[in-house]
Each structure stands twice: as C-alpha cells, then as structure tokens.
Amino acid sequence: MRRTALEKNNKKAVGGSVLAITSFSCGACVMVLEMAGSRVVAPYMGTSLVVWTSLIGIIMASLTFGYWMGGVVSDRRPDSRLLAAIIGSAAVMTLAVAFAANPLLGALSVGVRNIYIASVIAAACLFAIPSALLGMVSPFIVRLAMRDVDSSGGTVGKFSALSSAGSILGTFLGGFILISVFASTTILFIVAAVLGIVAILLYGGGWKQAVSIIVLAILFGYMSERGEMPMKPEGITIDTLYNSIRVMERAAFGTDLKIRILQTDPMGAQSLMYVDRPDDLYSDYTKFYDLAFHYKPDVKNVLMLGGGGYCVPKHLAATRPEAAVDVVELDPGITAVAREYFNLTDRENQRIFHEDARIFLNREARDGGPKYDAVFEDVFGSSYSIPFHMTTAECMRNIRTLLSDDGVFVVNIISSLDGELFSGIYSSIAAAFPTVMIYPATYPNSAGTRQNIMIVALASSDVPYRSPEDDYMARLLSHRWTNHFEPKIAAFTDAFAPVEKYSLKL
Description:
By secondary structure, the chain is an alpha/beta fold. It is 53% helix and 14% strand. It has 2 domains: 2-225, Up-down Bundle (Growth Hormone, Chain: A), CATH 1.20.1250.20; 279-503, Vaccinia Virus protein VP39 (Rossmann fold, 3-Layer(aba) Sandwich), CATH 3.40.50. The strands form 2 sheets. It has a 7-stranded mixed sheet, with helices on both faces. It has a 4-stranded antiparallel sheet with strand order 1-2-3-4, with helices on both faces. Helix 13 links the parallel strand 6 (324-328) and strand 7.
C-alpha cells in the first residue's frame, strides 16, 4: 500500500538516470555560480573577506530557503515538469545576472559607501533568486525518486551524495579551470546552458533542444569575450586565477601625459605607469623605496614582495642596473599583464617567483636562503584588501632573517597614522627590527589622513647619518615623521590579526 500511494502521488515518472544527472549538475552549478559571483563583484567591491562573507552568507541563506520551499512544493505537486520549470527559471535568472550586474554594481559602488551594506545588497540582488531556485532541486528530486518508504534512507543518501559530488566538482572546476580560462560572463552563460539542458531533459524534450541551448551559450560566450555583452567594466578586464584585473588609461593630473593603470581592487590603483616613460615612477609612494639606497648605499640585491605592474623593479633596472632583483608575485596573470601592458621585460639579474610571499619567506628563512640588502613589501591591494599573514610578527621575523646585518626593509601601508591598522603593523615590525622609521608619503604632517605610509626598518640599531645625495633624496627624507609615535595596538600574530576589523574603519 505504501509503494502504491507514493507512485500515484508522483504525477509524472522520470528515469533515475535523469534525476541523478539533475542532482549532480545542479550541485555543481551552485558552486560555479558562487565562484563566478566573486569575479562579477570584484571590479566594484574587491575580493576582501567582507565580500566573500556576503556572497557565502547570502547564497547559503537562499539555499536554505530553497530547501524548505522545495520540500513544501514537491509534496503538493510532485511533477518532474514543475521541477523542470524551476530549473529553467534558475537558468533564466543566471542569465539575468550577466545583464543586470554591471548597472547594479555601478550604482551600489557610488550610492552605498559602506562596504558591508553594499556587498550584502549586491549578493542578495544578484544571487539570492537563482540560489533559492537551485536549493529547491534536492528535496524535489528525493520526492520524485521515492518509491518505497522502506528504502527512503537509501534514496535520500544517494541523491545527497550526488549533489555533494557535483558541488565538489563545481568547486574545483570553477576555481582551477573555468575562472582561469573564461570571462565571468561566459561562466554565467555556461551555468545557464547546463541548467537549461537539464530542464529540457526533465521536461521530456529531446537532444535537439539541448543542442540549441549549447549553441546559444557558445554564441553568447563568444560575444562576451569580444566585449559585446554588458558585463565588461570600463577598460580592459582580464580574469586570472587570483584576480579580476582592469587596465585603463587616463591623462595624468595637470599634464598632457597619459598614464596606464592596473587595478585589482576598486578602492584604488595598484600600479600606475607613464605610457611614454615606463621606467619613471608615477606614484609618489613608490619613490620612497629609494630610501633603502640612502640608508645602505651599497645595496647589491633586492627582494620585492608583490609585483603588480612591476613599476619598482623596472625603475631599479633603469636607475640601478647593478642591483639584482628577486620579485615574488602570487598571480602569474599579473605578470602576464605587466609584460603585455606595462613594458616588463626579462633581464639577466632579475628573477620572478610565482607563489605566495609568505610561503616564500617561510621556506627561505627556514632553509637559510640568500641574504638580501633590501626587502620591499607592497602586497596590500588597498586599505581593506590586506593579506593578514603578511602583517604579523612571525612574518616580520622571517623578513629580518633574510636581511643582511645592515639591511633595510621598506613597506607600504595604506592607512592613517592614528589608525589601529597602522598601529598593529608597526608593532609587528618593531617586534622584529630595532630601528623603525615612519615616512608619510603624501601628507607628512598629518596623523589623521588616510594615505600611503612607508615604514623604513633597519636590521641594525644604529641609524647612519648621511647627508642627502641630491634634492630628490632630500625631499624624501623631509617626510620623516619626527613627532612622538606610540602604537596603541599590540603586534599582529598568525593566531590573531584582525586586519579587516581595523582596515574597514578607514
């Protein structure tokens, strides 16, 4: 009697293999959608922990609502064609994200200044509906597959496992392959195409309709790659394994010179270069790395943590060709962009390492790597996009280990002098270096203004006095903060470094 009742309640029977494909595919699509979502939002709001938290939280909340609604609806109408309509709607809403994201995110980035609120609104508006629709799939499939109450546990377990397996595949496929190969819009079209095909199969359509969906997805994807679809922000957009990169050109302020800009974070530019003078430094703060050569004139080898547009390594190659430079850049895609758009070329005494800077430091400090005369750190994308593990006392001790006995460490921090973020990083550096000096790059007499602040730390406790070599160096030295500074935050550690909490106050 139980078997008969269940079978009668399932209004349209559907094969177990189709249900299995549906469960697996929808599980994969959820994770790919989440991965692509981070790239859709990145050009406007960055890739900080706040943005990721908003995406994950909204998608999980939407899935939860979808699970509940899927159970309710499937009990009332256990029809595979209704499930097909739900999945088809998810496909349409995923396509809508591609068309709506650009204007929505542009308006939010201008109209809502609080990154917490803006990122939650963005995630909710773009991804709540497709995620909720996909959340309805799992309980619906279990209801359709249920033939016998006695085997209900096995049915639930089977399709839960298939959905989880799809989610695992989607995570690795999205993170390792799709984002590295396709633009964000193209990935959304792929997700929509997969959902459309599944909906057709569930509805009882044939492969001809499925093939038509595939052809349309390829066409839309090709158009998006050529910049003819709306998900292309201003300038050239390049998605890499780690970043969504924008390359733009502007006229330099107050001049007719053009500058080229590399941006991985909407809150600021990561590299700026004169188009006609690629070896000159445009950003004022980058010029303060030359202070290393004042405090140690015989610098022979430099370690640069963070490549970006490779403006500083190119400047060193042009002005101090005798100095060997090792650059550690996490993203090979950044280096490729620097080669194509920022005049980066190979030279004999320059090496590039593509890995996390902290991993590099840990290994070289542990294995007794080369001693550097100067270490430059410029890995903070903006005031709120900060890799915390590069701010801690443990990290600074590794840097000190790799410096020669009279070496110089120079780091760029975007903060204000009276901010907790700067205070914590200062304390971390002071825990490893006996001499720490502060150089506000733009407003040398202001403690409350957010700006690029350079910290110059010496491995030696003796500060050598040398007269400025020229007017250029005299100007840099005049920015030194000579007022009393007392950090109000203890050193950050690998166990506790709340950089997001402090940086967002800025």
